[in-house]
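Design job #97: recover the sequence.
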């Protein structure tokens, strides 16, 4: 299963990569620090999962989510956000999951693990 992490923070990217690798040894992980990098990687790799920072530079996270879902509505998008208010959550309603970036990021492990099992069973 291919996973794209789109987060401008090198530290967060590294932490998420470790979490995803721990959840699935089969995961191929791509990393992007900007909208442009993320959209190019997604266009090329068509990843099954995207872990998306709600605060990408230039406020382009919502645009990225919309483009991902336009290209493939089955792509699982997990949004991580520092702002978990109703307004922010509403902007990301097209996402499959929405978590507090610092207090709930470890929930990604269970999601990736479950998706990996589903992918293996489907093959």
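Job complete. Output follows.
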């Amino acid at each position: 299963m291919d996973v794209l992490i789109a987060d401008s923070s090198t530290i967060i990217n590294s932490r998420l990569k470790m979490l995803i690798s721990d959840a699935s040894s089969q995961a191929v992980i791509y990393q992007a620090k900007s909208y442009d990098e993320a959209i190019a990687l997604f266009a090329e790799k068509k990843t099954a999962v995207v872990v998306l920072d709600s605060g990408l530079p230039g406020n382009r996270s919502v645009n990225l989510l919309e483009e991902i879902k336009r290209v493939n509505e089955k792509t699982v998008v997990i949004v991580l956000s520092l702002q978990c208010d109703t307004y922010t959550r509403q902007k990301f309603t097209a996402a499959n999951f929405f978590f507090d970036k610092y207090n709930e990021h470890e929930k990604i492990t269970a999601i990736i693990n479950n998706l990996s099992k589903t992918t293996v069973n489907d093959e």
